Every structure is written in structure tokens, then in C-alpha cells.
Amino acid sequence: MTHSMRFTICSCDPPKALCWLLDSAIEVGHHEAKGRIEHLSDQSVLRLYEGIRHQVEADRAMGSRYRLVGNAAKERAQRLQAELAQRELKFMPIIWS
To answer: Is the model's pTM score more than 0.70?
Structure first.
């Protein structure tokens, strides 16, 4: 059985929307996330990763006044990056400064 999920990240609140999508696609908490990520398409994994990368860039553009992306997003990005590397897909690294 295949489940498809259609989701559009709205510009009004992207951090919450992206976290909802990530939490729906990735098992978080005490369980290993790999089992659920591996069932996503290449395009879905790339899209999730790129969403976090764009939020980090937005944080950098705003300076230190606000922070949209925290440690939880960084951990998700690392799991997604590992999956992208395993699939040998090209992606731009996230600059976390």
C-alpha cells in the first residue's frame, strides 16, 4: 500500500508547516528515523532537506534578531543529509552559522 501526501508550505508560518511535514514523514523520538525516510521518494527527501536549508538561509538574512530553525531542525537535516548521501543524490550543504 502506498500513501501519498500532498502538502504546500505556506509563507505565513513555514517553520511549523515544515516541522509538521517532517514529523509526518520521519518517525521521531525514541525510534530510529531511517526506516521511514527510506520509503520516501528521492524528490521528497530533497524537498524536505531543501526546506530546512532555505529556512537556515532566512535566519542568516534576518541576523540574530529571530531564529526560525533550532536544534530539532538541525537533527532532521542531518538525518535527511545522510539519506541523500546514501542515495548518492547531489545537494547543497547547509551552512549553520
So the answer is: no
Within 10 angstroms of residue 4's Cβ, the number of other Cβ atoms is 6
Where residue 63 falls (left for φ over 0; alpha for ψ -120 to 50; beta otherwise) is: left
Give the span between the Cα atoms of 81 and 35, in whole angstroms.
Answer: 15
Residue 16, SS3 per DSSP: helix
Q: What is the mean pLDDT of residues 16-32?
A: 47
User: What sign for the dihedral angle of Cα 14, 8, 75, 87?
Assistant: negative
Rounded-to-integer distance, Cα 59 and Cα 66, Å:
7
Domain ranges of the chain: 14-86
Tens of pLDDT, residue by residue over 60-81, are: 888 877 777 889 999 999 999 9
